């Protein structure tokens, strides 16, 4: 009789429609609450067997029934039957149907709240092991995501296992894809995640050992085999791309409360020139373009560190840092650009001094202002806004001096695209009433333009003559 009754209720639970499914599930819960052990030991095998149904609606109904069952069992009954309750939930967490996984997650949440904390130790390790299997990786990842959506704190135990050295591509991808779901507890894990991911993304991590390759994904195994067999120096570690993606996903998952920790890790990464700097600069460029967070409070710090690296000898690092500068400055609204004049000027002065110390003859040019076709693009708008809209004569003077410094640190080819955009505003603004020091700074910059731009200033000759004559008559 019990078997028939339970099967009838489950058949109703398998019918589409939240009301009917919920009513059938509650019926199972009421049976457990009122009949207790007499019905529980008969119900669990039926639920377990029904979970193997090919019909996703039936499997979803089983999960709804398990949830109601768990809400109505006593703690003693839960302990007694945990070994029978866990398998169908664990199976459903990796189900191919999202609705079944969601229903299983709800049941798992009730299970955890009911005091079965050992359920995490039983379920999560098997899901983590599944990540290394191409056949089960996707389902295992979805299972972990469902668990984290119900219990984000589980991430605290998951991260150390995923980042255990030697880290695998599968582990890195899992970290990135789970980060958004674990946002409430992500703050404490950002340093560990960024340290591991940015080191790998920069290409400075050792390849996994032979023993470790058994726990890594197939692409990691192939990488190790190529190294053992004498792969060429250009062989690319597949973990680099996975690490870069994980770092970006983690950064994008950081909320307002975590942002200061993220930026601190980025600044540390830029300081590690021989280690994490390359991956960090790449991440900053991608993050600044994709993030919806307000980065303006951190623009000065980021620019200071990035600009200093424009004097490095590694062309790839310099190019990545230049791209990051471009991305960071692009988040600043035009009306706020002038407020960053001081930080940019100080950063360029530091980079110039760094370049001067290693100079081996020839003109003093900053390496990062020579590489791209429009190397001055991230910086000219900030200085122009400083000259035109600076909040004080001192800011305008600093901006004019900064423009002059840019002109002297780049090549003639690098300056050419900006001659018109720099000269026009300087000619217009010098006619206003400014202290002598501000006008002198603008004149010095115009003088540098004449020396460096040459024929490029031909269209401005009449205005320049008029400007210089007026300035001769200034007191």
Q: Nutshell version of this structure?
A:
The protein is mainly alpha-helical.
Give the SSE map:
Elements: H1 2-13, H2 18-35, H3 37-50, H4 56-72, H5 75-93, H6 98-113, H7 118-130, H8 137-150, H9 155-162, H10 169-179, H11 190-201, H12 218-228, H13 239-253, H14 259-271, H15 277-290, H16 299-308, H17 315-330, H18 341-357, H19 380-389, H20 393-409, H21 412-415, H22 419-430, H23 436-453, H24 461-472
Helix pairs in contact: 1-2, 1-3, 1-4, 2-4, 3-5, 4-5, 4-6, 5-6, 6-8, 7-8, 8-10, 9-10, 10-13, 11-13, 11-14, 11-15, 13-15, 14-15, 14-16, 15-17, 16-17, 16-18, 18-20, 19-20, 19-22, 20-23, 22-23
Question: Your description of this structure?
Answer:
- This protein is mainly alpha-helical and 475 residues long.
- Helices cover 68% and strands 0% of the residues.
- It has helices at 2-13, 18-35, 37-50, 56-72, 75-93, 98-113, 118-130, 137-150, 155-162, 169-179, 190-201, 218-228, 239-253, 259-271, 277-290, 299-308, 315-330, 341-357, 380-389, 393-409, 412-415, 419-430, 436-453, 461-472.
- The chain is elongated and about 105 Å long.
- The N and C termini lie far apart (109 Å).
């Amino acid at each position: 009789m019990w078997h028939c009754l339970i099967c009838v209720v489950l058949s109703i639970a398998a019918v589409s429609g939240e009301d009917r499914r919920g009513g059938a599930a509650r019926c199972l819960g009421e049976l457990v609450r009122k009949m207790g052990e007499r019905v529980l030991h008969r119900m669990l095998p039926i639920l377990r067997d029904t979970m193997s149904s090919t019909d996703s609606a039936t499997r979803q109904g089983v999960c709804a029934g398990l949830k109601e069952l768990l809400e109505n069992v006593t703690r003693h009954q839960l302990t007694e039957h945990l070994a029978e309750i866990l398998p169908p939930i664990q199976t459903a967490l990796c189900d191919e149907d999202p609705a079944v996984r969601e229903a299983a997650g709800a049941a798992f949440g009730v299970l955890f709240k009911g005091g079965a904390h050992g359920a995490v130790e039983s379920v999560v390790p098997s899901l983590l092991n599944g990540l290394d299997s191409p056949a089960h990786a996707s389902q295992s990842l979805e299972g972990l995501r469902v668990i984290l959506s119900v219990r984000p704190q589980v991430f605290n135990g998951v991260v150390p296992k995923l980042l255990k050295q030697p880290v695998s591509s599968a582990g890195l991808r899992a970290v990135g894809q789970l980060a958004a779901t674990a946002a409430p507890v992500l703050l404490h894990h950002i340093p560990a995640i960024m340290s591991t991911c940015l080191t790998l993304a920069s290409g400075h991590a050792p390849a996994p050992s032979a023993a470790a390759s058994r726990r890594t994904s197939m692409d990691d195994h192939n990488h190790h085999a190529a190294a053992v067999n004498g792969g060429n120096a250009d062989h690319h570690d597949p973990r680099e791309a996975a690490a870069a993606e994980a770092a970006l996903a983690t950064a994008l998952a950081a909320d307002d409360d975590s942002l200061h920790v993220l930026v601190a890790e980025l600044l540390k990464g830029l300081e590690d020139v021989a280690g994490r700097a390359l991956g960090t600069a790449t991440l900053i460029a991608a993050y600044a373009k994709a993030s919806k967070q307000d980065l303006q409070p951190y623009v000065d710090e980021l620019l200071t560190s990035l600009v200093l690296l424009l004097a490095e000898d590694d062309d790839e690092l310099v190019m990545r840092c230049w791209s990051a500068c471009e991305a960071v400055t692009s988040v600043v609204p035009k009306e706020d650009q002038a407020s960053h004049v001081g930080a940019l000027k100080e950063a360029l002065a530091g980079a110039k001094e760094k370049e001067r110390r290693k100079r081996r003859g020839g003109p003093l040019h900053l390496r990062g202002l020579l590489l791209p076709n429009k190397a001055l693009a991230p910086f000219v708008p900030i200085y122009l806004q400083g000259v035109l809209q600076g909040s004080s004569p001192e800011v305008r003077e600093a901006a004019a001096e900064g423009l002059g410094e840019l002109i002297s640190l780049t090549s003639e080819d690098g300056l050419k695209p900006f001659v018109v955009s720099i000269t026009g505003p300087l000619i217009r603004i010098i006619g206003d009433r400014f202290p002598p020091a501000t006008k002198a700074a603008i004149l010095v910059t115009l003088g540098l333009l004449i020396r460096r731009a040459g024929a490029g200033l031909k269209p401005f000759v009449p205005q320049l003559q008029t400007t210089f004559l007026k300035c001769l008559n200034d007191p």
